[in-house]
Amino acid sequence: MATKEQAAPYSIQNRLLVGFSLLLAVFLGLTGVVLDRAFRDSIEAGAAEQLQLQVYVVLSAIDEENGEFFLLEDLREARFSQLNSGLYGFVSSRSFGELWRSDSALDLRLEDDGILRLDLPVGESVFSRTQTAEGDELFLSSYGILWEDGISEYNFSVLETAAPYYSEIAEFRTSLWSWLGGVAVLLLVLQVVFLRWGLAPLHRMARDLKSIESGASEELQGFYPRELKSVTDNLNLLIKSERKQQGRYRTTLGDLAHSLKTPLAVITGVAEKLSREKSSGLPADTVKQIDTVEEQLDRMNQIISYQLQRAVQANGASALARQVSVRSVIDRILQALDKVYADKAMTHSESIAEQAVFFGDERDLMEIMGNILDNAYKYGHSEMQITVEVISAGREQLSIVVEDDGPGIVEEQRQFVLQRGARADTLAQGQGIGLAVVTDIVDSYGGLIDVGNSKLGGARIQIVFENPKIS
Amino acid sequence: MKLLVVEDENLLRQQLVQSLTENGYVVNGAEDGRSGLYYAEEYEYDAAIIDLGLPEIDGIELIGMIRKAGKQFPILILTARGDWQDKVAGLDAGADDYVVKPFQMEEILARLNALLRRAAGFAKPKLEFGPLSLDLSAKLLTVDGEKVDLTAYEYKMLEYLMLHPGQVISKSELTEHLYAQDYDRDSNVLEVFIRRLRQKLDPEQTLNPIETVRGQGYRFSLNEDS
Lengths: 471, 226
Known about the structure:
The complex is a heterodimer. Chain A is α+β, with helices and mostly antiparallel strands. Chain A folds into 3 domains: 194 residues, no CATH class; 101 residues; 150 residues, Histidine kinase-like ATPase, C-terminal domain (Heat Shock Protein 90, 2-Layer Sandwich). Helix content of chain A is 50%, strand content 20%. In chain A, a hairpin with a 5-residue loop joins β5 and β6. In chain A, α1 packs antiparallel against α2, α3 runs antiparallel to α4 and α6 runs antiparallel to α8. The two termini of chain A are 19 Å apart. By secondary structure, chain B is an alpha/beta fold. Chain B is built from 8 helices and 12 strands. In chain B, strands 2-1-3-4-5 form a 5-stranded parallel beta sheet, sandwiched between helices. Chain B has a 4-stranded antiparallel beta sheet with strand order 6-7-8-9, covered by helices on one side. In chain B, α6 packs across α8. The radius of gyration of chain B is 18 Å and the shape is elongated. The interface between A and B is large, with 40 and 32 residues.
């Protein structure tokens, strides 16, 4: 089959693999982002709640006199009294700013004091983030209250270093992404396995088709999944009908040959009879005409034989080739020819590699070997030699050599007898069409034919076929 | 020599029968495989010519059936297709040679001659018995190198006897193989032919090549030269 040179064929497996990998990346990525966000939010919510509680702690332990705030008792949370403990309490008002800070915050410098002057409605709390002047992140919870005097509004604020929370988030993140990564790898491996398993019938079908191509089997065998069954059934049907078609074609040609050549034989018989009588005093003109009829009959016969034989083998190396044992074909022909040439008592020595197979139609190999061996019997004196080898020079080659001890074929004749498609009506009288047909068949299989001299003294015909690759 | 021709094309069969008869054979023609098989089983033949493309029973099948019936006479096949698959199949089935259609009558005659001679166990186209030499293709008898003129019937009879040397051939067998079915079989005629033949072969009566086996028939009694 003549196919255009194509770019590397794409693979269904790779397509599915790429598609699924993208899906996996998007799905796991989004999952990761959502989980990360949720965890972060819950950590922050926890922090906010914690700080809110601390605000109440501060609120319950503090009192005011003449605008001065002081602790009535030690705060239950020890961290408020340890310098730079990370937990800081503040009391502030919108107009005066900071009014009190816990001992822990004595050293603390905020990047922006403004957060202590927030305009918070009474009874409302706000959670936010801020930074120290050094750039350390802090969580802040502020609560707006109306003091006992019923006039003053203060903000009670608690700040806490965010670092521990962040490191917890970072830890979670690390473990989250490594888990997701692990899952991704596992899923990819599973996916490859599933894909192979799922596509295995396709691979098997490709293998089966290959073995049909190479002639190792006749049809797609074995079980195929439902989805492929209709395809394989149809393929089998196609192969069968193609073979049947070939068979029918040959039968039709055979019938055609029979129905053309039988009347031709009758005419030949009549002409022969006439020509026998031509000595007995027919007019010169009539004798000439009889000769013309005989000549033309001969030509017609050659043309019909040649074209029919060409038509029968015109399929050449079809995709539906079969493997034909070279030995069995040669044996059958030798057996037949031994009968036909019984008077000649030709001795033949054969060296035929057992594993030598011809990838093609048995009829074609028979036609090739029949013609060549017939020539060897016809022209050889007493001896012939057949050598069949499988040569592996890169690709496997089948080499068939037939030699005889006859007169051989002279140099100038060699090209002529092999001429591919040599038109039968240009052939000289009595010249066979055998080798021209052989050349046509060999050519249709992409093989080579060579005519040379044999050690035995006669002709040496070599034919080389390249075997198809079987993977 | 008695031949069977199985060919479905009327004209061709008639031609074959006529030409072969003209060449001294006794010929039966059959127009399809079925009647071909009938003839082959019912009568004794020395050879058959069978077309491969026959109606009813095709040629290859017919050959197989003839061989299965134990008939050993040589068979020449006629094939129109001329491809090797057909030739080999025919020869495999039990035929002995083939001719591709269309053919020259001489080719058929030459092949037949060779087949008959081979079937009788002779390798060379000339049968040599002492001073007697019979050239089967030229249909020529020489005694001590001298050509001897024979009539068609004398030749046929001698050929048959020489192709079966040492065997006792009954008069009825001889008649069967020399005459067409409907010929008036008078054994006296046969005796006349034999007597004339003896005179021509052996005028001095020193060789006695054709023996009479009392009550059984005739025997060609010379030994073949090797």
